[in-house]
């Protein structure tokens, strides 16, 4: 039975294509064109596009579930699928005329971008002149549009700007150890005019009419780690069962004992299940939109970071008992291990800032009592 927009069901087909092409993506340091086509055909780009422009009107819960499904086959493909959805949602904050330009050719335009204020913008008649360089823009080689963030000299705050392909250059800079297939290269903009219709104050993302970005920012990252951890568990379980059948784990023998493998399986699968439950609740809260409370925002931010810590712990434990074969470049397990640990470094998943935000209100209330 197809649920919602059918994104989760279509993600299953994309997962298998992405799994077959994962090694190629690693070698190329970007996705293969057939996987990118699958991302768009599956409906990730249109998931959060306004219905008036052909969008699907999808939910955060369906989005997160679908990203995790794809990540079971290839975390890099899932990450770029998440970008396609998430940056389209950001583009939906543009004025109506700007939205019409972004989706003039249809709701499957591949929008990528960076919300880091790494550029500068100056007012010009009818709009702005924008310059800057934005690193780590995933999927940019296949993009149709980019959304970048720039500061205004002498003014507080920052603005977002949407530029079509051809208005920006791509510099090949991506050489990370994990998530190699995301093609997270650098966008360069050199004194380009952007009309007012394709610009919006970045603060709208935080206090606009939709769900605040703090409540969902980690949801664009953590589900990819969840799916990769699930994939790692499947791989590790199969490999370990075959090793045990060959005599590994016997009392007095070399290597870990049977109990070590059993504990790794029980703990790892439990941690992955716990992380999934945290992310499901966070997505359900996000689907309430503007009715989310400050306390729920803080809890969501905490849960994105905490769930990722659980996933890292689970994958690291499995990898530690995978033996030399698990470290082989031919093993998908080592790719999942690198990818999950790489995802965990994203600023949206850092635990200490999440803890500060979560503790601020109850500690303040206690101090005032």
TrEMBL record:
| Keyword Oxidoreductase on entry | yes
Concerning Gene3D superfamilies, the annotation shows: Acyl-CoA dehydrogenase/oxidase, N-terminal domain (1.10.540.10), Butyryl-CoA Dehydrogenase, subunit A, domain 2 (2.40.110.10), Butyryl-CoA Dehydrogenase, subunit A, domain 3 (1.20.140.10)
| GO MF, one example | acyl-CoA dehydrogenase activity
Alphabetical keyword list: Oxidoreductase
Query: Domain named Acyl-CoA dehydrogenase C-terminal: which ranges?
Result: 221-349
A single GO BP annotation from the record? Answer: fatty acid beta-oxidation using acyl-CoA dehydrogenase
- Where is the chain membrane-spanning? none
> What name does UniProt use for this protein?
Acyl-CoA dehydrogenase C-terminal domain-containing protein
What organism does this protein naturally occur in? Streptomyces roseus
